[in-house]
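Q: My collaborator sent me two sequences in one message, no labels, and asked for predicted structures for both. Can we handle them in order? The first one she listed is below.
A: Yes, handling them in the order given. First sequence, followed by its structure tokens:
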Amino acid sequence: MKKMPFAIIIFIFLAHISYGQNYTSSKEMPCAATDQVFSSGERLVYKIFYNWGLLWINAGEVVFEVNQIENDFHLTATGKTYKRYDKFFKVRDYYESIVDGETLLPKWFKRRVEEGNYIRFDSIFFDQENHLVKEYFGKTRETAKEHNFTLDHCVHDMMSIIYSLRNIDVSTLNDGDRIPMDIFFDKELFQLSMIYEDQIEKKIKGLGKCNVKMFSPTLVTGNVFTEDAKMNIYVGDDKNKIPLMIESPVTVGSVKAILSSYNGVTYPMDAIQ
């Protein structure tokens, strides 16, 4: 079986993008996003379903948590396959980010990835004021090598972009409008967009009927996404702006991530009817 894209859920469900190309920052992404929609103590759990032939397999889960450290937010995400699935494809992923409590821009990011035979360690230090990035990258912490980069704009990591996007005012978006995203990891800067599609009512397994705003991110083709792949992200149409379901085709089969539990949210989950 090919690599299962668990990091899709981590990276606003855009990961394994490192097989794409380099990009130059557009200078269009806002460099500040005051938090209004999430708080310390928020915990979101997503169940991951993988479609293999005619079967939908509940293969694992991803847990997102937010905690406050003085004036900063400590963001973590842990993705894993269930033990019964490990013999087919074992996943143990951990993502961690410290972001500025005022701008929601990252100060430090760490990623430990174990997905089958794919193993990766990534630790990044951000100097947002001077647009400098120092990254330690390799298979393990011990073998990681230092790399230094100079950018021309602020930049997010794979965790901070998720929470920053939730704080964007989407009430005035029209169909086809794009939200720019600059994200740095794997020694590369990626310039992507989140495309607003529609406002709909969506029936979601385990949640029932939900009022959602539908988005589709731009993807970089590679060993996970085909050239014509389209990912759909259904974000709750309420003040929390939490993704309720993500569905995407991959090179082999398709993947769904469905919100299964939530605690410590700032506002009532009015999007779930």
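Q: And the one she listed second?
A: Here it is, processed independently of the first:
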Amino acid sequence: MKRLPALLATALLSLPVLAHDFWMRPGNYRPAKDALIEVGLYVGDLGIGEAVPRSEERIVQFAAMTPDGEKKLLGRDGLAPAGYLRTSSDGFYVLGFQSSPAFVTLPPTTFVSYLEERGLDAVRQLRATRGESDQPARELYSRSSKAILKVGEQAASGFERALGLALELTPGKDPYVLPWNGPEGPFERLPLQLTFRGVPLAGALVRAINLDDPPREERDAQRVLQARSDAEGRVWLSLPSEGRWMVAAVHMLSLEDRSQADFESFWASLTFEVRRKP
């Protein structure tokens, strides 16, 4: 029974490979100085999810780049929230999480749906060319997640920090000062760059969901913003409403050595908050 929380954490971290998102949700995106912030990890669909307990064996990186340098996000293994952070100075705090790879085998219909939903057309076509569309898929996967917090109103830089995550989304503008374009919106376009191992990733499907007003069922999925990254890994998103937003992407490689797995996927998410100015 003592091992149950850790086993639950590992099981929940395995769920996202079935095309569920994985994201970081701090208790406050605009905290005051010297505040203690709970930092949760969540897994779910269309912005609706469950808290994932901390699993030390799966953590490669769980830290924040702060105005005072890097700070580890500490917590207790097997418990949620997964970490805690104290804001000691004004400025931007860029939180990052990286998991170790895990393995799963997916039924062919599940894998095809997953590829279609996440825009992984090249992998779907490769499996068709190999005559493997009706075969199970063996996959390694890992998770990267970021969140941006802003303490005080004077910070002008720091939101654009890259953390060296395997797959990473980084904004090109401060999301906390995006202009609101009139009573019907949307906000001014937010540029983001997607990188894989530090190199811009082209042609990836990037999705955005308002976590405060998520789609409640599949037929509302048109409320998910979608864009493909250009040759420089950039996308521009016109966020239609204020609130806490999650931006996410998936990248998948076909493995040359298929003795253990056929593919390796890398998942990324970024969360932040936007508000209309009075």
